[in-house]
Write a structure and sequence with these properties.
Blueprint (H helix, E strand, L loop, with lengths): L4 H22 L10 H10 L7 H16 L4 H14 L8 H10 L4 H7 L15 H6 L4 H13 L5 H19 L8 H11 L4 H11 L6 H8 L9 H10 L4 H10 L4 H16 L6 H4 L5 H18 L1
Helix pairs in contact: 1-3, 1-14, 1-15, 1-17, 3-4, 3-17, 8-9, 9-10, 9-15, 10-11, 13-14, 13-15, 14-15
Bound molecules: ligand AR6 and magnesium ion (MG).
The site of ligand AR6 has 23 residues, from helix 3, helix 5 and helix 15.
């Protein structure tokens, strides 16, 4: 199936802006046990602007670096992350990346520094939360996507589980980007595509767990079964589930993701990326889009990635 240029362009932009919306809507509730969708709507409604956190800040950095390097370049990515962090260090970064930036600035090569952060490197969700640009840009080439997701993760989240989480999230965005618009959503086919990407271990087990869950289980049950924490394996599956529970509504998918509690901004961001990639930017409610900080810039980054993809063909 060939997707029209307009559909793809809208999906590229939707994945980036969707990340920002999920992140900004979820940020006020980070660490909460559970939140009701009504409360999330009410808090967003009272805010003058929806401001985002490190999830979106690093997503922007990744898109900027892909564009500047006309593809993936790990050294450029690290430099971009560091320059962006220097400008806006207040974005609520996890402990790992700022420590890495300091080590690199002091002369440690990033590859060594990334392995020193935690035993075997970080398996925090920081490399999965920023995977949307990889998911859209390599959506039609999953082998390259996996390679790039791993290499992107290695710059900050070198643990195998960090890399695999980033690849799985990028794959979810990619599969969503490539689906036929308007056709009935096939949950089993989507899950099979993801399972093929996660052959063994904890991600595979959690994907199997998703198959066993009812489509509308209570939020406590989902958080208990799949996790809702800052580790990649405790958040990427929850985001995938949130999208699968509401494939045809961006608002419902993202509100549901945040209602799970825990690492709400990141699970919101990752769900927003997958849903935005499938439904396109037009499906993101204006009441949120119009308030999102830097929304036009993010939309442009998505569109420029789409243009670059067309040129490279
Ligand atoms: N062993 C034990 N604990 C680990 C390991 C490991 N190998 N790796 C990670 N952790 P970090 P992030 C735990 O610092 O992933 C922000 O709010 C450890 O407790 O790499 O970039 C973002 O928005 C560590 O502090 O940060 C994300 O939501 C934690 O995982 C979130 O924080 C996070 O890993 C994570 O950001
Ligand atoms: Mg965050």
């Amino acid at each position: 199936m060939t997707l029209s240029g307009e559909v793809l362009k809208s999906r590229f932009a939707g994945a980036l802006v969707g990340t920002g919306i999920g992140d900004a809507l979820g940020a006020p509730f980070e660490g909460r046990r559970m939140v009701s969708p009504e409360e999330i709507e009410a808090v967003a409604g009272r805010r003058e602007a929806l401001t985002y956190t490190d999830d979106t800040h690093m997503t922007i950095g990744l898109a900027e670096s892909l564009l500047r390097s006309r593809g993936f370049d790990a050294d450029d990515l690290v430099q971009t992350f560091m320059a962006n962090y220097d400008l806006e260090p207040y974005r609520g970064y996890g402990p790992g990346p700022p420590r890495l930036f300091r080590l690199v600035r002091a002369g440690t090569p990033w590859r060594k520094a990334a392995l020193e952060l935690y035993r075997g490197g970080s398996y925090g969700n920081g490399s999965a939360m920023r995977a949307a640009p990889i998911g859209v840009f390599y959506y039609d080439d999953l082998e390259t996507l996996r390679d790039v997701a791993w290499r992107s993760s290695e710059t900050t989240h070198a643990h195998r589980l960090g890399r695999e989480g980033a690849a799985l999230q990028a794959c979810a965005v990619a599969l969503a980007t490539g689906l036929e618009p308007g056709a009935a959503f096939d949950r089993d086919a989507f899950l099979s595509g993801l399972s093929g990407f996660a052959p063994e271990g904890i991600y595979r087990e959690k994907l199997d767990g998703i198959r066993g869950l009812p489509t509308e289980p209570d939020t406590a049950g989902v958080a208990g079964e799949l996790g809702n924490g800052i580790e990649a394996f405790n958040s990427v599956p929850a985001a995938i589930f949130s999208f699968l529970a509401h494939p045809d509504s961006f608002a419902q998918a993202v509100l549901y993701a945040i209602s799970l509690g825990g690492d709400t901004d990141t699970i919101g961001a990752m769900t927003g990326a997958i849903s935005g990639a499938y439904l396109g930017i037009g499906a993101i409610p204006d009441r949120w889009k119009n308030k999102l900080e830097n929304r036009h810039y993010m939309e442009q980054l998505g569109e420029r990635l789409w243009e670059m993809k067309g040129q490279d063909r």
